[in-house]
Amino acid sequence: MITVDNLRKVLEELHYEKSKKKDVYSKQYTLFDCVIKVDFDNKTISYPEDKGMVIHRKTTCNFSEPENFVVLECITSLLDKGYKPEHIELEKPMPGGHDDTGGYCDIQVKDNDGKTFLLVECKRADEFDKYWKKTLTDGDQLFRYYNSYRQAKALCLYMSDYSDENKLKRITHIISMQDNDEYLQTDKTLKSFKQVQMENGDKEDYFKVWKDTYQQDYATRGIFEEDIDAYTVGKLKYTVDDLDEVDNDAIQKKYHEFATILRQHNVGSHENAFDKLVNLFLAKIVDETINSKELQFHWKGAAYDDYYSLQDRLQKLYKEGMEKFLGEEVTYIDQKEVSDAFHLFKNDPDATRNKVLEYFRRLKFYTNSDFAFLDVHNEELFYQNAIILKKQ
After folding, report:
1. Quick one: which of 233, 235, 234, 230 has its CA closest to 112?
2. Is the full-model pTM beyond 0.90?
């Protein structure tokens, strides 16, 4: 956790400079002609209000709570990224309405048109998990704030910490509030954020869409990374540089998460599940080996991805892995191959028919469900298995 005791080290890592005469650390932003100052003598934090940053109340501008240091680090990172000070407001009160009132949003970011773009709630390290569980349960503060500022493109529960290894660490859980129209087309019964807005719904209605339609998807990257521009939320391309090394504790945690997923979805055959997990490991190894600059082995989130595309990518990786490492040929028909069949033989209907039938035979008789944790034999079971697969 960031505390007064290690705050100086955090500021040094964030490239603040210490005054020669006073116990004051400051960081200059030439682009915006502004400065942030942290005064240890007076235990105050000064943000660039003279350049348009709005602070509705001063509760985060002192050393009274460790959470204030998380806000400080977040604001520093936003300005580092290129967000303008006049687009940032701290501790903005919620106007309420729709049976939901009260609260102060830690950080509200506006876009160049003055519209609410991003809502950030900051938490210290020892409280982050508790508040994320509350978010998963009923939407908690983030969805209450969104109920007041519905133009926001994304919500973010944010945490920054300073570890015993003298290293600054941040966690971002980013919830996209933008609909994926292509994904919604897969099931006409799915409700969208747009529908809730048109019906003048409330916090509970927006939360229900996130929970039921998008299965509480969230991203852990997409705001502060080097390849993300300011006023852009979401990361579509991942490289091996985005991956984190896992230690034994993380491996044990993943093992328990895997077991929990199997129980939640009533997957009875653990032997079959283990086989599918091995297949996923193979696909993962292949992905990091041959797609290091643009990884394919990840769920991009319901705002950007769909289950058919995900499984198609996994099947292709599995085919390449079986051939590369085990010398086994695996039948895989790329969607492009089927589309090409209609173009290559456009003047020969019989040749087109024969080619498509050939693909059909190969898919029907030469393929196995390499990533089916359930016995998939209809559309409903496909989606049930897709949810299990995504959680891995």
Report:
1. 230
2. no
